[in-house]
Structures are given as C-alpha cells and as structure tokens.
Amino acid sequence: MDTSTHTFSALFEQLGLASDKDSIEQFIRTHQLFSNEVALHEASFWNESQSAFLRDAITNDSDWAEVVDELNNSLHA
Predict the structure, then answer these.
(1) With 70 as the cut, is the pLDDT of residue 4 above it?
(2) How confident is the model over 14-38, as pLDDT tens digits?
(3) What Pfam families does the annotation carry (predicted)?
(4) Count of CB atoms within 10 A of residue 51's CB?
(5) Under a CB-based contact definition with an 8 Å cutoff, are residues 5 and 65 in contact?
(6) Complete domains list, the chain, with CATH
(7) Looking at the whole model, is its pTM more than 0.85?
C-alpha cells in the first residue's frame, strides 16, 4: 500500500497539467475562483475527467484529498 504523501506537482501531473513550479504558479494566478460558492471540481476550466478526479478525491477522502484541498485553497485565495 502506498502511504506516501502526494505533492502539488504530482497532483498537476495527475490532472495532465504542466507540473513545474512556474507553470503551477501561472495556473493558480490565471484560474482564481473569486466565489466560495464555486466548488473546485465545478470550475469551468476542468475537463470532465479532471473534475471527476477532484470531486472523488474529496468525496472519498482519498490519499489525494489533502493536496486537492491545498489546490482548492490556493485557487480561492
């Protein structure tokens, strides 16, 4: 069983996005969610599989949940 903690970079890789530091920072800057009423997985910039992954990570409290929550906080900042 994999008990390692997933990194922010690994999450971006899992989502099929560029995962280097500069690309992550740019993504966060350009995809801010200005309303707390918009759930992370409901944001318009995700494709269907990305949205499902994010929703399932939180709903199922998967091993990705902590880093997905970190992404949520970063985009709602």
Answers:
(1) no
(2) 999 999 999 999 999 999 998 888 9
(3) DUF2789
(4) 18
(5) no
(6) 16-75 (1.10.10.1130)
(7) yes
